[in-house]
């Protein structure tokens, strides 16, 4: 369970934090978005989270939750099978849940990447026009 779920989740979380920090830093370098709350008094400043960062957070949360939803049933069934005898149908269903979760992650990547999406749309248009 540790090698199949905990370690990948930990690695996934670490990489997501590093990616978000990098995007946040690049946003501040390219386009500083600072709103002044009280300019007359202490010159307090508050960072505004950009749409780009919110979109990235949503995507990371989707990927993380889909990963957990895909792996949890299969890992749970394997552990439960050590304690009691289960029908092979349970394991087959958990594998199907995992496959659907990985398909959802793959589709989300294609939808989220603008260049890949444009490429696929152009290819589909070319095949439809033939």
Brief sketch in words of this structure:
By secondary structure, this protein is mainly α. It has 4 helices and 2 strands.
Could you explain the architecture of this structure?
The protein has 130 residues and is mainly alpha-helical. It has one domain. The protein is 79% helix and 7% strand. It has helices at residues 2-30, 51-83, 88-112, 114-129; strands spanning 34-38, 44-47. Helix 1 (2-30) runs antiparallel to helix 2 (51-83) and helix 2 runs antiparallel to helix 3. The longest helix is centred in the middle third of the chain and has 33 residues, at 51-83. It is flat and about 55 Å long. The N and C termini lie far apart (51 Å). Residues 33-44 have low confidence and may be disordered.
How is the largest sheet built, in terms of strand order? 1-2
Average pLDDT over all residues: 81
Q: What are the low-pLDDT stretches, counting only 5+ consecutive residues below 50?
A: 33-44
Strand-pairing-aware structural class: mainly alpha
Total DSSP helices: 4
* Helix share bin: over 70%
> Judging from the principal axes of the Cα atoms, what is the shape?
flat
Q: What's the total count of β strands?
A: 2
List the secondary-structure elements in sequence, H or E: HEEHHH
Rounded to the nearest angstrom, the radius of gyration is: 22 Å
The tally of domains stands at 1
In terms of DSSP E residues, the strand content is: 5-15%
Largest sheet, if any? 2 strands, antiparallel
Tell me the span between the first and last alpha carbons. Answer: 51 Å
